[in-house]
Amino acid sequence: MKPKQIFILTGAGISAESGLSTFRDKGGLWTQYKVEDVASLAGYERNPAKVLEFYNLRRSIHKDVQANAGHHALGRLQRVWAANGGEVVICTQNIDHLHEQGGAVGVIHMHGELGKVRCHDCGDVSLADGELSLHLGCGACGRTGGLRPHVVWFGETPLDMDVIFEKLSGADLFVSIGTSGNVYPAAGFVAAARSADIPTMEINLEPSENAHLFDDARYGKASEAVPAWVEELLAPD
Ligand code: OAD
Q1: Residue 6, Cα to own-chain centre: how many angstroms?
Q2: What's the CATH code of the domain at 223?
Q3: pLDDT (tens digit, 9 = 90+) per residue, 46-61?
């Protein structure tokens, strides 16, 4: 029987073929930068200009990338499932907007979004088009210098965890795509699904850290393995 409610977790691997670096693969972002310098509150407090420069560089790279066949396939799956009374929840650790570009809606960005800023002083979250700088003022409280990228840094709690666990616990299939399984709490979703007797599957270039916890696995490029899996699901019984 086909699943009715599918919970999909994605990571950097689904955007790799769109030209965005992953974190831990050869040449990945965390092999080029120190996490504690550019992705922690302590690093930001030590040198906010350096952190903003890192995110400005990422924002300029992200501007030119396009969703790949993996993102488009998930958008299609979501539409078809919704039209037939089911639900596909897409929860991503990625801060890019390629799922939305691929037609997905209601994407849960548990690690934040690169296109937004958050005021360090009042907490207001807003879209930010141009370069981030220490001279920008917050549209809500008016304070200058406190606009930080709306991304989750190490040591901070990921966003929307209550919605995530509600959706995950109601799922009848959990699929993890393009994530190494190194970063919690996302890396713990497969164990949570298993303990609720929800079938689990991973799609990744290679077995992840948690490979032994999945009931099923498909290894290959996301741009090929994801559309192939979606085609199978969409095929008539
Ligand atoms: P990683 O870089 O840790 O893992 C990427 C995974 O994608 C690896 O398992 C690769 O084998 C796989 N992969 C690479 N290319 C692929 C392709 N074309 N098709 C399919 N799979 C491919 O990235 P994440 O697991 O997403 O957090 O990292 C999780 C978090 O760590 C990120 O959200 C970020 C980072 O620190 C924060 O910044 C808070």
Answers
A1: 16
A2: 3.40.50.1220
A3: 999 999 999 999 999 9
